[in-house]
Design goal:
With about 290 residues, the chain is α/β, with parallel strands linked by helices. It is built from eleven helices and ten strands. The longest helix is centred in the C-terminal third of the chain and has 20 residues. The radius of gyration is 18 Å and the shape is globular.
Length: about 290
């Protein structure tokens, strides 16, 4: 399997980092979620390489890419992606987006329908936050704000992560993906690459986005891959919203398949990399020119 190699593209006012895995078949562009980075695709991308040219991108504000103080609305992030595809000479790739990356991929496919061969939304891209019963911006702002972690050392962060869902699936790849979200200060504590202010710009954009209005503009085949597991309270409410959102999207998209991954955490690329890679490869191979 290919370990990939790092590259950068310089766009107007922005330098993006990506990791590329070489291959001969249709190109795949992998987009991470908010406050994540391209290393979340570390277990998946090598399984796709060879059959496909694979590029996992650090979006603005994340990982090894530039971190401007603005531009986290969907129009700007989609423009970043469009310029990236042009710079890498990618005409009609399959876009694969995890979490917020799914929202970016959906927005791109609706904005530039002729530039996308297929769309894979991995536990993201279909939720309409503002449609949640009783939803207000104030509630979303409070519930979706990032945790304050800057007082932690890397060792303390890892110890805490192992007590959460990631502990169930811990590996070197999980640790690399987690630590790829942070820099280490001279004092030995962590600092997220995505600042709190920029994170909240992403949250605001998610609040304003209406996936149900974007789906009718998508012309390419789509594959939804969604995690599900037994849950209670707010997690159960989100699970029910996810099912409703996917069912609604299926009625709005001309060509939509759905795969549910049972007993799986949100970070499917880390939890079920082999199964996820198999689904993506089968979908991409089946797409006709």
């Amino acid at each position: 399997m290919s370990d990939g190699h790092d590259g950068h593209v310089s766009l107007p006012g922005l330098r993006l980092h990506y990791r590329e895995y070489e291959g001969e078949g249709r190109s795949l562009v992998l987009l991470h979620g908010v406050a994540s980075n391209c290393l979340i695709w570390g277990p998946v991308a090598p399984l796709l390489a060879g059959r496909h040219r694979v590029l996992a991108v650090d979006q603005r504000g994340h990982g090894g890419s530039d971190k401007p103080d603005s531009g986290y609305d969907f129009a700007t992030v989609v423009a970043d992606l469009h310029a990236f595809l042009d710079a890498c000479d990618l005409e009609r790739p399959v876009l694969v987006g995890h979490s917020w990356g799914g929202n970016v991929a959906l927005q791109y496919a609706a904005t530039h329908p002729d530039r996308v061969a297929g769309l894979v939304l991995v536990d993201g891209g279909f939720m309409e936050i503002s449609a949640r019963p009783g939803a207000t911006w104030e509630r979303a702002e409070r519930e979706m704000a990032p945790p304050e972690l800057t007082h932690l050392t890397p060792a303390q962060l890892i110890e805490g992560a192992k007590r959460w869902q990631l502990g169930e699936i811990w590996s070197d790849d999980v640790e690399a993906a987690l630590m790829g979200n942070f820099a280490v200060t001279d004092e030995g504590t962590i600092r997220p690459h995505l600042s709190r202010e920029n994170h909240m710009q992403v949250v605001r954009a998610l609040w304003e986005q209406k996936p149900s209005q974007l789906c009718p503009d998508v012309r390419c085949p789509a594959l939804f891959i969604a995690a599900e597991r037994e849950s209670e309270g707010r997690a159960k409410e989100w699970q029910e919203m996810k099912r409703d959102a996917i069912a609604r999207a299926q009625t709005l998209l001309a060509d939509c398949q759905v795969r549910w991954f049972a007993d799986t955490v949100h970070d499917i690329p880390l939890h079920r990399p082999r199964e996820l890679a198999d689904e993506i490869a089968a979908f991409a191979t089946a797409i006709e020119e």
